[in-house]
Amino acid sequence: MSNVYQTPESNLVNENVSTGDYGSVEKALRGEYQFTIGSILSEAWAKTGGSKWIFMLGFILYFLTFVGIIIALGIVIAGLTAVTQEPAIVGFFQFVIQLGINLIVMPMVMGIFMMGVRRSVDAPISSGMIFNYFSKMLPLFVAVILINVLVIFGFILLVIPGIYLMISYGFAMPLIVEKGMRPWQAMETSRKAITHRWFSVFFLFIVMFVIVMIAMFTVIGLIWVLPMLMIAYGILYRNVFGVEATTIIE
């Protein structure tokens, strides 16, 4: 008997999982990968059909969960403020709560990105995937802290190092989730691989940003654009690092 409470799943891709010759970590570190902005976006657009509502439900679940967390923590802060008026104590708890939000949110964000990775190889996806990666909560959190510190430090120095690191670390998070790497290992793997085609990746991200800005003027366009860009990110990751068999069949 089917589970009526199960989140929607993309049945269009169940029988035709792509196992083509894509990238690998070894090839990525040697710079042995190629892509064009046009090919990434055109393939992503083609794969958006039949999956956009699954992505949108994932975004909605993420938004509702995030709002619920904010409301709950807001109540906690209000209670603490009622108990003590000491600014240092309230500030400390606000800091701890902010860390807690990041701990919870990052695995959910990666769930959405991993939907794009799985869609890139025509593997089944479901909106419930946003809840699949809480086991990676701590390494993701550590990576976020390290990346933010290094990127901010780079901007303080000369700006350009900050921009370089911000783009170069763009695949550190999925490498932690999909390849099981440690935070620093994932960061360095991403940096070394992306450096070979840094400008190509940079301009792809710029184009993706512009597309989002244009779609925001119509609002309804985001229904197509947001899933497409998640898939585009997944396609780029697939072309550079490949996708593990365990990711396809999980």
Automatic annotation (TrEMBL):
InterPro entries: DUF975
Keyword Transmembrane helix: yes
Keyword Cytoplasm: no
TM stretches of this protein: 53-80, 92-117, 138-156, 162-177, 198-226
Record key words, sorted: Membrane, Transmembrane, Transmembrane helix
Protein name in the entry: Glycerophosphoryl diester phosphodiesterase membrane domain-containing protein
Natural source organism: endosymbiont of Galathealinum brachiosum
